């Protein structure tokens, strides 16, 4: 604990944020949670210079709950080291997003959403390193989550074309990725469809997945993935190339077929959901806009989808 405090002091002094003699008068928050139940907001704050203690503050409005949280145990609450904010999905509306934009000077912290009670989540995970290590591992292994900052959410929300999203997580014995939540439409997408969006946006280029063939499970690695999307003659043409490997089989013929089918199904589910619910996270409609110079969901909805996926069988050296 002493090492953490010393490192924090050095960091604060180096960055010039806080004089040394004021450190003991601050409650330094690195992880924040926000819930809304029974018409009341509940704020959860992890204070890193208080042995990572979680404080709980309840109020009838966002203004009230943050006003109450200005001081904790006679210490001024300090948010400039905020790294993670976890929101229950029922708190994510324009009012909350605008409030956080106005109240916080820094907007580069990571955002996560959950359909669980934040209190349940924080009873197991309330430190920034818990969430950051989880995101890093899941992105590298399954491609089902990516780093998303409040700044990116805010930018997308003010974009006439693109909709913002927040990674969706849950707790079942450990943290799990559930997909993404789109605040503007109150829509949740599962992690496979979310991954399709990341792929179309070049946010991921590799992931591992499980393929079941003849009642047997195989671990499959898809990597060096590249996506190219074009719109022509009322058709959205999506081409994906990459490599495939599996530590469980030397014959990849059927695994490749199933992997291609899986990718196609996930992409089609995503694009059909966008067409039917008039939102845009895949950037597919942007390619129509570049051609027609019109943001026309009717054109998008009536367009055809052609997906061409080619995977090359190649040993993935990362198993070494």
Describe this structure in words.
This protein is of the alpha/beta class. It has helices spanning 2-15, 62-68, 94-103, 118-122, 128-141, 150-157, 191-200, 253-277, 284-292, 297-301, and strands spanning 26-37, 40-47, 53-59, 71-72, 75-78, 84-88, 110-114, 166-171, 175-182, 187-190, 207-213, 216-232, 235-245, 304-313. The strands form 2 sheets. Strands 1, 2, 3, 4, 5, 6, 7, 8, 9 and 10 form a 10-stranded mixed beta sheet that branches. It has a 4-stranded mixed beta sheet with strand order 11-12-13-14. A hairpin with a 2-residue loop joins strand 12 and strand 13 (235-245). The protein starts with a helix and ends in a 7-residue tail after the last strand. The mean pLDDT is 90.
Q: How many DSSP H or I helices?
A: 10
Mean of the pLDDT scores? 90
Low-confidence stretches: none
Q: Helix proportion of residues, in percent?
A: 25-40%
Q: How many β-strands, per DSSP?
A: 14
Cα shape: globular
What is the strand content?
25-35%
| Structural class designation | alpha/beta
Characterize the main sheet. 10 strands, mixed
User: Any idea what the radius of gyration is?
Assistant: 22 Å
String of helices and strands: HEEEHEEEHEHHHEEEHEEEHHHE
* C-alpha end-to-end distance: 36 Å
